[in-house]
Amino acid sequence: MSNWVLGLTGGIGAGKTAVSNALADKGIVIVDADVIAKDVVAKGSPGLNAITNQFGADMLLPDGSLNRAKLRELIFADERAKTWLEQLLHPMIRSKILAQLNQAKGPYVVLSAPLLFENNLDALCDHTLLVDVPEHIQIARTAARDHVPTEQVKKIITAQMSRSEKQKRANTILNNDKSLTDMYNELELLHQNFVSIALNHSTSKPHS
Hints:
The protein is α/β, with parallel strands linked by helices. The chain has nine helices and five strands; from the N terminus they run βαβααααββαααβα. Catalyzes the phosphorylation of the 3'-hydroxyl group of dephosphocoenzyme A to form coenzyme A.
């Protein structure tokens, strides 16, 4: 890996997207694992063709795109189907992530992934940044943003890696429980630090 990679993650409602957007505004390339995960099952893709070959054409919507609700329902009910799907998609996603990380230009590159630790994508990173807020703020923000009941948000949070475990695994934690201005100010300091570390990383590499 030629670039210095910052892994960016955070629980639902923590503000990872705001941080990612702010870094993009500073000219940092963002490799988004969620976007890649959608690309590998896009209409007409080898990933989607493999899914329909395995589970049948009823996995498709009338327009030929993936019926995500139907697939989700299947993998929740069938552990073998879930394992098969992971074995199909994870290598595809990882390959695309690596390609984009290597092609990125700039002082450093960000790998943004809500399941950074869960899917061991932190192994591709030189440093990890967790955007963190207390759980009650996660619940309030997500319920207001997505117009969903708080109980639904709590279930999503419970299904994710615990906040304390993420805190243990992260190299740096950005507390995002204050105003957006406070967050941007703290992020600017972190960004300058990351640029400095990445520069040292590139100059200290042996020349071939």
